[in-house]
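Minutes, project check-in
Item: structure for the 182-residue chain
Input as provided by the requester:
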Amino acid sequence: MRIAVYSGSFDPLHIGHLQILRKLQQDDRFDAIYLIVSPRNPFKAEGKAANARERYQAALKAVARHPELTKVRVDDIELTLPAPQYTFRTLEALRAREPENEFTLVVGADNLAVFGGWREHARILLDYGLIVFPRRGYDREALRDELLKENPSYRITLADMPLVDVSSTQIREGSGDDGLLM
């Protein structure tokens, strides 16, 4: 099977994430989508995210509220891996657990902007590849082209999707969710 791996803090899951999941759901390149709640992003300050187990439970409930997401499975693999949770380790653990499957990492353009600083970024780009969704303020084409200068064999696909301008940070810092939660 071909699996899209969509990993993140999801603190909280919101309509932007839902739009990405719906787009992946419609994408014939993928047979399944693994939504993986990360205990702690190595690039974010410690103590900022809600409890990982609570976020995992919230993700299960959010996906259950959307029965159209038949390809989506909330996966707890990062909750079982030793810290720190580097994406490369997660992808390798998925490959070890399911060697018959092919995995592709899903990221936003904000992550593509710093992808060269990710642990084993070259191996991720060669062995797994990326599908990149838009984020305000990031030129995906330019970011992709910059990485391809490092190695033209990197597998980077830009998702054909309009920008959904909402972030978990906005929701956490706002006065309410205003219908933005998934």
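Outcome recorded: The two ends are 27 Å apart (CA to CA).
No further action items on this chain.
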